[in-house]
Amino acid sequence: MAASSSAAHDQHNLPNPYSAAATTAAPPPTPSAQPNHSHNHHHHLTASASMAADTLSRLLTRLPPSLSLPARLRPSPPSSAAAPAAAPPIPPPIITLSDSNATELVLSAASEHGFFQLAGHGIAPRLADSAESESLALFELPDDRKEMQFPRNWPLGFEPEEEDRNGESFWLDDSATTELTSLSSLRELTHALEKVGLEVVEMLARGVGFENPFKGSVMVLSESETTSGGETPSGGGFYPYVVGLQYQIRRQKKYLLPGSGSDWVTVLPEVESVLVTVGDIGQVWSNGKLKKVRGRAVPCLEELGNDKKRSNLGSKRNISMTLLLTLPLESTIAPLVSEKEEEDDEKRSGGSMKFRSIEMEDYAWRVYHEPFLFKDPLDRYRF
């Protein structure tokens, strides 16, 4: 979109593709911590606390999306979840897209693990290197330039570093990279990853038995500080997605938090592969047939040291580029399996639908602002 004046030339307002985000206030998280009282009043106070939390949640739904709860009211992730147990990394299942049985292999890996790596995807290493250089340049900009060129219009825009987050992040839709010529390689990588992601979603849709209703994507550039002692940086907020994709530029371990548990898994994807994780939307669409990874893959940075070839081209910053295939905020998330699949599944497992319908805007706001390491955010929506 052309600028209307020279003064506005450097300011690129990101049009929000999620029309409801600009007008509808999404509810912030419901505080979960309740005060401890004597044993004799436990049952009475538990019910009262639940009613009070529900009332507070309804009152706070009137907050605009640009506001959030003060930091003192937002609990920090527990230290036990921030330090995954030391274990040898496992290689994610590797699948070549050109294989004749690729659909079966993708479905098997997604059902058993919730993640896998792809070869034969057609993305050139040189493109990923160039996109990373462009992304690093964004983080080197002064803060006022970051905020001017990428104004916050949740979930899009520049997210500054906060006390309960680890590093800055940029949340970009296609219009953001299109308007800035300096991000041409990042835009090309985004489109290439989106093409691969669409192919994966189509395979999952065919394998599970639902129509593919995919709508759009968000590129997340997140910064993580070098860690020690096994700590895992969060690298920004958690956002719902169908599948997430990361191109592996260098040999580097990744932390994943699969399923509903609290145990981290360390994986070591091959260089030049694409690491794919199934998100919460994908699990709900499949009615629980697919496993998921909670949040994005987190780089293990302590092993990089000062190796310039392995630490973002020698920069002091360590960033990751993750493409999330996701939905507009006005969407409703619900199982999409066909009636026949539902009947067959009911006969096999003795049950039908595993999840209630979920309003995307409410869910996205909740999981973005609440620490997701405490428990699976989908638990409240299960039957």
TrEMBL record:
This is Non-haem dioxygenase N-terminal domain-containing protein. It holds the Pfam family DIOX_N. GO terms for molecular function: metal ion binding. InterPro entries: DIOX_N, IPNS-like_sf. It comes from the Eukaryota. Residues 68-85 have a biased composition (Low complexity). SUPFAM superfamilies: Clavaminate synthase-like. Residues 1-48, 68-87 are annotated as: Disordered. The keyword Iron applies. Residues 1-16 have a biased composition (Polar residues). Residues 94-148 form the Non-haem dioxygenase N-terminal domain. It comes from Linum tenue. The lineage of its organism: Eukaryota, Viridiplantae, Streptophyta, Embryophyta, Tracheophyta. Keywords: Iron, Metal-binding. The keyword Cytoplasm does not apply.
